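Notebook entry, structure prediction.
Reason for the run: the old model in the group folder had no record of what sequence produced it. Starting over properly, with the input documented here first.
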Amino acid sequence: MQRFFHANSFWNQPIGPRPAIDPESASLIEFMSQQDDRGFWTNLHKWTIPIYEVDRHTPRRKVHRRLQQTPLGIMARSAPYFHAKHACGHGSAFAADAGDGLVPIPDHAMSDPESDHHIALVDWESGWAWDMWSAVRRADSEWEANSGMKYRIDGSGVFDRDDFPVHNGESIHPYGPSRAAGVPALAGTIMHQEILDGRIEHRLAFATQAAGLQRFVSPPAAWTDGGWRAGLPEGAVLQLDPSIDLSTLRLSPTARVVARALQEYGAVCVDVAGGHCLYGEGLYADARQRTWRGLLDSSDLTHIKLSNFRVLEMEQVIHEGMGPRVPDGVYAGHE
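New structure, fully documented this time:
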């Protein structure tokens, strides 16, 4: 199947032999294990990324933006709904439809039912993709969302931090990105067809409750909402030890497809969650009636201990990001 972003994109690069391991790798993995010693869950039925293919015939729908109060008490009134620089592609201005808040959304489409309400739209013909966070359909069939972006599907898949006028301590969401790390929502999603094909050829995305406070790796991240001073910076890449013989891990054939991708491409920390979780394609209201049931189970990878992973070298760590969200000692203050 077609991969998102161009062949040289960060997201599409295999790790290769003898990668540099970060000096903090052991301590970061240990910290993650202290928060939850199970391996990775795979979000397949909730907290997912539903992705719909669209084209020139798909109805264009008005998307209204809900303004948010940021942690610094600033209303993001000046931030456009679809950010003026897509930063993933060719440097051209956005198409007029984004400026008018019109987005191609199929009649049957629905966002993820959980509170993040992600949704993504992909137009392979035009080369554009849209994604939104906290997006819901209104009674009048128009939509509203807290944030959203339009970007080139044949671009790099990496946004430039300087394209977002976000202030230290704020969330980046009001400025466009649907992911707290400031990466495309599409990036790193496990697609249903990839599992059927038996091959994933891109890096995966994951969220963790152990994400680091105001530390992120750029590229690929442009921000972070992590809360632990000893936590893993968003944008960091984890790799499953490639020397492990996957046939010894009692994995189903489909789970082995995911595990192989974790060895060959690794997984990128992109958000905060209640555990450690990878992201599968959300198949809500799927036009082809596809399902994950009987193909892949959410718990298939949980018995692979985090001690089998390592953090690859974090070349550029930026000390900015969203501020603590709860009092010290509860979430942000743990050392």
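Summary: Residues 10-318 form one domain.
The old model has been moved to the deprecated folder.
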